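Key result, reporting period 2: structure in, sequence out.
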């Protein structure tokens, strides 16, 4: 902890000494971090009024400033290191990749497409317009990635944003909010486009939810926070939990499937909500799949007593994940069991029945249960059960188009990845933009600027149709 405090205080000093002039203006001095939630919201409201009157090209400039600031090597390294140190979750190298992805592949203002209708009656356009001040709740698992991603999308949409980060990611979130506001201030943007409170807490989140100046709530997290915002009486976007299953059938390229599954499952120590959480493999290829997983960094536990010991170690009495093991490496988990694993070990694998707790629970650790199924249809059925109606993410390795379509249709997940690691579904290796707020429950999907906008109609009667 002391290391984090030293780094934060050193970096804040650097921000302050680099631009001493800026500190004559108390408003900018805070760089978006306020003592109370009401102050953070009031400042955000004032900023949004200014942003609303600016040109779209200005918004795009601000988006580019956010990208550039987050991608500056020293910032990227500092944020990624602090995120791991403060939350105790994930892997530094992978945080670098995730922060880079958020900064590079979150769409900007080009996402705001105008619909136009013309005819004898004139012209009618429908445009994506800002909600105003957005209250965004962010998770411990992607603290900085979500702030970068949401800030770009929301500001591109003409909104300002008040963040309510997880208290365990307070310092790194503050660091990022200050960093972005400082860079935005230097670029001439209105102060406080992005704000938060000094002490994030459940109480402060509730104040944010209840404040009438917040026009839209966006929750990225587990079931509790998603149902809280959805029952707020306000427009809310919920990006909730997943438990992504993987199906591998006999037509798949098994060597590639094994490598893809290990790579996806071990990415940032399995904390992404889209990461592979359990595998259903057709019996005829299951042994070969496991063999190839072991060649790619899988550590197999075959003794069921050891599996029991592992479950006791990493889960609570209620069956959920122990916070102290969320986002830890396979090597670390094995060491706590007295097993000395080498650095190539990425994922702990084991064969279990489909009802096993490791299959049902979203643990967010590189522990991957494998269930044998008689055939592909049975594997798809098991996957459907394991996904538990989250409709979040699913993966399939197969060359059988009919069965690929069957699984995609049955599971109805927001992301369905075929023949790749799960992260390809969020733009890392696959086509398409990225998002760290994947809104399954409320249907926006991989959110972007337009997800945070209101549709408004504007028309001119009897003119401007040139057909
Ligand atoms: P979490 O639900 O514990 O916390 C998420 C946020 O909600 C935090 O800011 C937390 O402080 C707040 N929160 C939680 N309960 C609250 C309550 N009762 N009142 C007020 N605030 C509350 O989740 P986490 O451990 O930080 O993140 C992991 C979870 O988020 C996983 O379930 C994962 O699948 C999900 N997630 C989903 C997405 C997505 O895009 N769908 C992205 C990342 C994470």
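The corresponding designed sequence is given below.
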């Amino acid at each position: 902890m002391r290391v984090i405090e030293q780094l934060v205080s050193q970096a804040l000093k650097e921000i302050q000494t680099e631009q001493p002039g800026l500190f004559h203006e108390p408003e900018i001095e805070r760089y978006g971090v306020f003592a109370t939630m009401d102050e953070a919201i009031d400042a955000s409201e004032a900023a949004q009024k200014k942003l609303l009157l600016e040109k779209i090209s200005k918004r795009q400039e601000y988006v580019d400033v956010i990208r550039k600031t987050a991608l500056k090597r020293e910032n990227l390294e500092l944020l990624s290191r602090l995120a791991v140190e403060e939350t105790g979750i994930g892997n530094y190298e992978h945080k670098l990749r995730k922060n880079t992805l958020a900064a590079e592949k979150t769409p900007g203002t080009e996402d705001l497409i105008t619909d136009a209708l013309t005819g004898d009656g004139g012209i009618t356009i429908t445009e994506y317009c800002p909600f105003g001040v957005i209250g965004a709740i962010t998770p411990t698992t992607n603290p900085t990635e979500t702030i970068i991603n949401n800030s770009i999308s929301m500001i591109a949409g003409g909104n300002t944003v008040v963040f309510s980060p997880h208290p365990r990611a307070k310092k790194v979130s503050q660091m990022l909010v200050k960093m972005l506001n400082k860079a935005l201030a230097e670029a001439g943007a209105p102060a406080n486009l992005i704000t938060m409170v000094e002490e994030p807490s459940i109480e402060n989140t509730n104040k944010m939810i209840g404040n009438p100046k917040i026009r839209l709530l966006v929750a990225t997290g587990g079931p509790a926070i998603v149902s809280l915002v959805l029952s707020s009486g306000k427009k809310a976007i919920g990006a909730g939990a997943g438990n992504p299953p993987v199906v591998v059938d006999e037509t798949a390229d098994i060597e590639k499937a094994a490598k893809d599954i290990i790579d996806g499952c071990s990415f940032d120590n399995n904390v992404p909500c889209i990461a592979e959480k359990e595998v259903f493999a057709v019996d005829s290829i299951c042994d070969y799949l496991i063999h190839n997983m072991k060649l790619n960094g899988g550590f197999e536990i075959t003794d069921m007593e050891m599996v029991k010991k592992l479950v006791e170690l990493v889960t609570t009495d209620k069956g959920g994940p122990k916070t102290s093991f969320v986002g830890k490496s396979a090597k670390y988990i094995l060491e706590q069991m007295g097993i000395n694993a080498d650095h190539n070990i990425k994922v702990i694998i084991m064969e279990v029945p489909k009802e096993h707790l490791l299959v049902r629970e979203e643990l967010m650790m590189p522990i991957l249960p494998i269930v044998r199924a008689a055939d592909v249809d049975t594997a798809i059925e098991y996957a459907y059960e394991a996904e538990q109606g989250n409709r979040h993410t699913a993966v399939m390795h197969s060359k059988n188009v009919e069965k690929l379509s069957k699984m995609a249709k049955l599971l109805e997940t927001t992301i369905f990845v075929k023949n790749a690691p799960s992260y390809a579904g969020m733009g890392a290796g696959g086509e398409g933009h990225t998002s760290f707020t994947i809104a399954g429950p409320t249907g926006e999907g991989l959110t972007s600027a337009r997800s945070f906008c209101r549709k408004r109609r504007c028309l001119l009667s009897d003119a401007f149709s040139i057909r």
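The first helix runs from residue 2 to 18. Residues 16-28 have pLDDT under 50 and may be disordered. This case is discussed further under Risks and Mitigation.
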